Amino acid sequence: MAPTLRVCALYPDLMNIYADRGNIAVLRARCEWRGMGFEIASSSTGERVDPDAHDLFYMGGGQDRDQVAVAGDMAETKRDSLHAAAERGTAFLAVCGGYQLLGHSYQLGETELPGLGLVDLRTVREEGPRLIGNCAIEADLGTGTHVIAGFENHGGRTYLGDGERPLGRVLRGYGNNGRDRTEGVHRGNVIGTYLHGPLLPKNIWLADRLIEMALGIELEPLADDSLEEAAHMSARRAAGV
Fold first, then answer.
1. Catalytic positions, please?
2. Which of 56, 68, 105, 181 could form an S-S bond across to 170 if both were Cys, CB 3.0 to 4.6 Å?
């Protein structure tokens, strides 16, 4: 019997800018085209989550005011459950604003937003321009080195702890902070990144790898991914790689 991918979108009503909802659509399509099941649930403000009921948690990007609303609620209603899910190997994909809330905190002037603390990182809204533009990174998620291409637009600068592993090395663009040439974070099955626009339609190999990580399986390639490969190459060209 074909497996079913169970996805939970965190705060989809608040954390969904730059067409990030397209990431869910791609995961559904990649499963259904293989005859696999796909289930989508959501959890927003005031709602708790069952750490055993999902294979993958997803949180997209949001503006600062949305992150303020989300951060406190997430710490109060979801933190313990999401830690339990990560410890048992549940996959996480957090994009931009969602990525910033994976760490310990996000410093916005005099306000410090609490993070989930799933990974060792801190984000600070520093003086200076927003980091905006097409971006490409080189990443290895256990299947060899691949290029991830997307678009970044963030005012926060993210700094990883000494023992934390970035998602990839910046080829073009700014990445986590515009200084150390790192982008995103990758610990176990937890992935955070600033790249969207949306992310998975431009990097279909990453969508398949997330499914594999979430279900502990190895996927067979689809017969024709020419359109998806063209989208990836277009994103790479836009980034200049």
1. 96, 196
2. 181
| Nearest-angstrom CA–CA distance, 202 and 207 | 9
What does 125-149 look like in DSSP terms, one character per residue? Answer: E-SS--EEEEEEEEEESSS-EEEEE
Burial class (CB in 10 A: 0-12, 13-18, 19+), 235: buried
Specify whether the CB–CB gap between 44 and 11 falls below 8 A: yes
pLDDT digits (tens, 9 = 90+) for 74-114: 999 999 999 999 999 999 999 999 999 999 999 998 999 99
- List Cβ neighbours of 133 (8 Å cut-off, separation of 6 or more): 151, 152, 173, 174
Residue 70 is which amino acid? Answer: V
Residue 47 has a pLDDT of: 96
CB 104 within 8 A of CB 117: yes
Report helix, strand or coil for 54: coil
**For residues 188 and 186, what is the distance between their CA atoms, to the nearest angstrom?**
6
Rg, Å, the chain Cα set: 17
| pLDDT tens by residue, 191-228 | 999 999 889 999 999 999 999 999 999 999 999 999 99
Largest CA distance in the chain: 54
The DSSP secondary structure of 18-50, one letter per residue, reads TTTTHHHHHHHHHHHTTT-EEEEEEE-TT----
Q: Is 119 exposed, middle or buried (0-12, 13-18, 19+ CB in 10 A)?
A: buried
